[in-house]
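Second attempt. The first submission of DUF1499 domain-containing protein had a stray character pasted in from the spreadsheet, which I only caught after the job came back as garbage. Lesson logged: always re-copy from the clean sequence file. Corrected sequence (284 aa) follows.
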Amino acid sequence: MRIVYPTQRPDGPLFGIGRRSGRALQRLTVVEPFSGFALWSPRLAWFGGVVTAIGVALLRFGKVETSAGFAVIGAGLFLVLAAIALAVAAFVAIWAEGQRGAGSAVWGFVLALLILAWPAMLGIKAVTLPQLNDVTTDIDSPPEFSRSRVALAARGGFIPPELAPERRAAQAAAYPLVAPLYLDVAPGQAYETVRSAAEGLGWQIVEGQKPGGRMGQGRLEAIAHTPLLNLPEDVTVRIRATADGTRIDVRSVSRFGAHDLGTNADRVQTFLDAVSEEVAEDAS
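This time the job returned cleanly.
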């Protein structure tokens, strides 16, 4: 608490007293201090948001290694969480000691919550979706990734491991719509449609093999990227002839992390929808 004593004008009346009064009662002004917690909460929230945005930009444009980029993002989010803690401490100080700064504390709290909205959404997905980073339309016999020199170089030497049966079962329960696509077209035409759909989605084609020849089945390998952070993820497509057309199987694998937060299932479904639409357009 700070007490301010006003000064007396030498040629005028005192505060609250007329000129005839010989004594003056000076008014004491009580000024409550501004909460330091409230002052720093919005500042820290802004700074944490900027650090988080820098980490996202560094990853998206490939300026740092993936681990370093996530470290910057993590540091920024930690600062935002600290801003929430400061806001709560400010609320306590304002309530208990009558300090000023309620508006600043509320602004810091709200700003921090807005910044944390996106991480919170990802956290909900991490809790509600199974821990998978490999999704396929054929859980019994997933399409295999090529180990050619070109494919390995494109994937940085990464060879997706096979998942345990229980994890494949978890995929079937969580993503029942991720299933093979059957087309009433010849395998050769299906391959061209698959390639066109992949290019339309912005995938980087690594290598492809048309159906026929010694193997019989066709194959297409590509690299896709996550929407925000632009992280590379690997996709392989298998094209096999059936009695009356073609069967398309897809497998999408994340290179980083044990949880894809549903991105691979979304990618597979989006790709199959694109293939179906192109086949329908060609038929019409």
